[in-house]
Specification:
This protein is an alpha+beta fold and 425 residues long. The chain contains 13 helices and 18 strands. The structure holds fe (ii) ion. Keywords: Dioxygenase, Iron, Metal-binding, Oxidoreductase.
Length: 425
């Protein structure tokens, strides 16, 4: 071997030793829970099964959810992506998506005709439908519901007897269901394929009591309880979240409300000059979870980053929506960092401070033993889980998110108020 060939061979083996060491380090402890240093056990959680609130247990048992291995199921450490480039590659290519709301009867006769009452909770956002079971909807009604959600941003259904399986089926109708590589989920895999099992069921667990204790987060009244802050789900995806359906099956008597705010209305709050400036711009969005940078693994966790339009057009309504949120929008592409910071701060505040474009929902059902569903469109909204309940106030839910189209901005699209012929003052 020539001296230079020997040097190359040594370098290659150094390199592979280094990669091996990095991988070993990365596997020592599950990552991605950036706010906590607590070491956690991945996989099914047997100990937590005993703490499952009774109404949730009743629902799961009624619908044959297999809890024998434990609950919730956290993906095994070996299946959790460690590096940000690996996580970025998940669903990093276009897949077919059908915009269901586009096929719907604009008058929504099948959906409204089957309801006993349809209540708009505020002028600009939020509608409650009474007297309908989500599990009974036919495809025509599901299309009409997608249209209603696209128009009203969030739609609520109390007193639901809904199985996790049916919730997943609804989610699959509205788009590709997101299966999270890290998040706790409901066991629902009727497959023995280890790769499929590793991807999770697509039914995420929303259980603050579990999250706080398990991941070692310390809720504090002074810091806003266990609230989530204003955000939009899964904006880092290549095709970010469209419809999310959260079904709460254990609900405290008081506390644990959720608020939503309309992105259409946030856009309409801006001056025409600012609207024009923002139209066509892109922003950088980050993931909620963190991973290691392969090139610089000791530098600490890193989030997935992706560029999307900052004003997007909703495919069903054709209306423009301001697509930013404080938790996950980092910068505006093409601006100096200071410019971007000032403008984004203003845009966040438009969303957060205008109570006339928000709705706050109290989840409580009217009938004991039944749950409540909220179905919202992440393309045109932010939401905020209000953490004003204590550990003894039990709250548990299951969430299914349908991913939507590759976001786009149509320069010919109109704002909601423009399209509806309302005053732009
Ligand atoms: Fe969320």
């Amino acid at each position: 071997m020539s001296p230079s060939a020997a040097a190359v061979a040594t370098n290659q083996s150094d390199d592979s030793d280094l990669q091996q060491t990095i991988l070993k380090l990365a596997n020592l402890k599950p990552i991605g829970q950036g706010r906590s240093n607590k070491s956690i056990e991945t996989g099914p959680q047997l100990e937590w099964l005993e703490k499952l609130p009774q109404p949730t247990r009743n629902r799961f048992e009624k619908y044959g959810i297999d809890l024998s291995r434990g609950y919730p199921i956290i993906p095994d450490n070996k299946d959790i992506p460690k590096f940000v480039d690996e996580a970025f590659e998940i669903r990093n290519k276009e897949y077919p998506y059908i915009e269901r709301g586009k096929n719907a009867d604009p008058e929504k006769k099948a959906l409204f005709g089957a309801a006993t009452e349809v209540i708009d909770l505020t002028k600009h956002i939020g509608t409650e439908i009474v007297g309908l079971q989500l599990s009974d909807l036919n495809d025509k009604q599901k299309d009409e519901l997608a249209l209603l959600v696209a128009e009203r941003v969030v739609v609520f259904f109390r007193d639901q007897d809904l199985s996790p399986q049916k919730q997943l089926e609804l989610g699959n109708y509205w788009g590709q269901v997101e299966r999270h590589p890290q998040a706790p989920h409901v066991p629902l895999n009727n497959t023995t394929d280890p790769e499929e099992i590793a991807k999770g069921s697509g039914i995420s667990v929303i259980w603050r009591h579990f999250f706080n204790e398990f991941y070692g987060f310390k809720p504090s009244f002074k810091k806003g309880g266990i609230s989530s802050g204003w955000h939009t789900d899964l904006v880092h995806e290549f095709q970010p979240a469209g419809i999310t359906h959260l079904h709460n099956d254990t609900i405290p008597k008081t506390g644990g409300d959720t608020a939503w705010v309309s992105g259409y209305a946030a856009y309409d709050k801006l001056s025409p000059a600012l609207q024009q400036f923002l139209d066509g711009k892109e922003a950088i969005f980050v993931s909620a979870h963190e991973y290691l940078d392969r090139e610089n693994p000791l530098k600490g966790p890193k989030r997935i980053e992706r560029a999307h339009p900052l004003v997007r057009t909703h495919p069903t309504t054709g209306w423009k929506s301001l697509f930013v949120n404080r938790a996950m929008t980092r910068s505006i592409v093409g601006l100096e960092p200071e410019e971007s910071k000032v403008i984004l701060e203003y845009l966040f505040q438009v969303y957060e401070k205008n109570l006339d474009i928000q709705v706050r929902f109290k989840w409580q059902p009217t009938k004991e033993g039944l749950g409540t569903s909220a179905i919202w469109d992440n393309r045109i909204s932010q939401h905020f889980a209000i953490g004003d309940y204590e550990a003894e106030d039990l709250r548990h839910g299951t969430r299914v998110t349908s991913l939507a189209e590759v976001p786009y901005f149509d320069p010919n699209s109109k704002s909601q108020r423009q399209a509806l012929g309302l005053s732009l003052d």
